[in-house]
Amino acid sequence: MVAKYPAICDDLLLESCAVFPQSISKLIEPFTKLSYPLTRFNWFNKLQAMTLHLSPKMDRFYNQEVKAMSEQTLVNMLSANTTFNIQTLIPIRFRGKTVIAYGTKEEKLIIKSSNFLSKEFINSRIIPLKNYHHGELTLSHPDRFCQIINSFQN
């Protein structure tokens, strides 16, 4: 959003961003349609939460959120995540402070995307989070997240 509408915010924290299209995007809809009926089962949602490296205290919340999500919403969300291509938004005109965080245990695509973003956002700082997985900063380490936010606002 900020690449398209630079006045939307003053500062920015990006975490675990994928900014290049992925070949798996064509499989999202059929696989989601096959697996979606399983989301009504707590055991399936718990398994998904484990693969996302969510802390066990998030299980109940994650389970509720997944059960409340429609099949089409899930397809749309996953499709948007796998088809996004930042190349269509270059050059990026955002000039605010930008922190780009990624976990060192992320997929190579996320690390490549983070390095790309750090070059495109002119006032950016990149933070590799040692031993973190995808999205783990905001989901499982809220104190560390707040610490990073506070450090770049000062």
Mean pLDDT: 92
What is the radius of gyration computed over CA atoms, rounded to a whole number of angstroms? 17 Å
Helix content: 40-55%
The percentage of residues in β strands lies in 5-15%
The rounded distance between the terminal residues' Cα atoms is 24 Å
Counted by DSSP, the helix tally is 7
Q: Name the shape in a single word.
A: globular
Low-confidence stretches: none
Given helix and strand content, the structural type is: mainly alpha
Extended strand count: 3
Summarize the biggest pleated sheet: 3 strands, parallel
Strand order of the largest sheet: 1-2-3
* H and E order: EHHHHEHEHH
Question: Mind sketching the topology for me?
Answer:
Elements: E1 12-15, H1 28-35, H2 42-51, H3 59-68, H4 71-83, E2 98-103, H5 108-120, E3 124-129, H6 136-140, H7 142-153
Parallel strand pairs: 1-2, 2-3
Structure description:
α2 (42-51) crosses α3. The longest helix has 13 residues, at 71-83. The protein is mainly alpha-helical and 154 residues long. The chain is built from 7 helices and 3 strands, in the order βααααβαβαα. The mean pLDDT is 92. It starts with 11 loop residues before the first strand and ends with a helix.
List keywords for this structure.
mainly alpha; about 10% strand; globular
What is shown here, in short?
By secondary structure, the chain is mainly alpha-helical. It is built from 7 helices and 3 strands.
